[in-house]
Description:
The protein is mostly beta strands. It contains no helices and 11 strands. The chain is globular and about 40 Å long. The mean pLDDT is about 90.
Amino acid sequence: QVQVVESGGGLVQAGGSLRLSCAASGRTSSxxxxxxxxxxxxxxxxxxxxxxxxxxxxxxxDSVKGRFSMSRDNAKNTVYLQxxxxxxxxxxVYYCAAKESTSANYNxxxxxxxxxxxx
Length: 119
């Protein structure tokens, strides 16, 4: 049983940076995969990034590749999404998700945190 809670969203100007946090609680382990998704108004939820809990290796959507990166703090049981060179198109509610590495679907989701990029 795992709970994840996102934080760190806010308003930022285009070209700026923001770091989102996802704090996990419950029975997490290095076997978990963590991911970020986002959903803009009127659009479907889309994949942003994912990584294994225990490593810094990740996979990124083409739209954010080279601008976003994931990292972790094992002591705080937290993963981060560093977002640089933000664009207005990045405006969305960002969700943290988790799953066991062998599971097909992400079954643990946070409530979301709003990111708004102005121009």
